[in-house]
Specification:
Mean pLDDT: 90
Number of domains: 1
Shape: rod-shaped
Radius of gyration: 35 Å
Number of strands: 0
Largest sheet: none
Order of helices and strands: HH
Amino acid sequence: MASVLQETLARLVHKTAVLMEKHEALLAEHAALEQRASDQSSTIEQLKAQLEQLRAQNQYLRMARNIVTDAKQAEQHKAEINQIVRDIDRCIQQLNA
């Protein structure tokens, strides 16, 4: 009778040890999955912000395309902008001198 109880107790101790190992493995896996979910959440937030920037940029490009109707006007506007940039650069050089 005592040996049966000792065998039963030994089996319970063994099963408890196995369950504890599985529990620790599951806790580690849970922590890894939480970290992965956190990383993916931050990636999603970054992608959302990038998407909003690209949408705004797309909207600006559409407005610019509607303003400039042909290539000749676009070249003229580009030349005017380049001239203004050169003038600003000259002014900055004069201020720094």
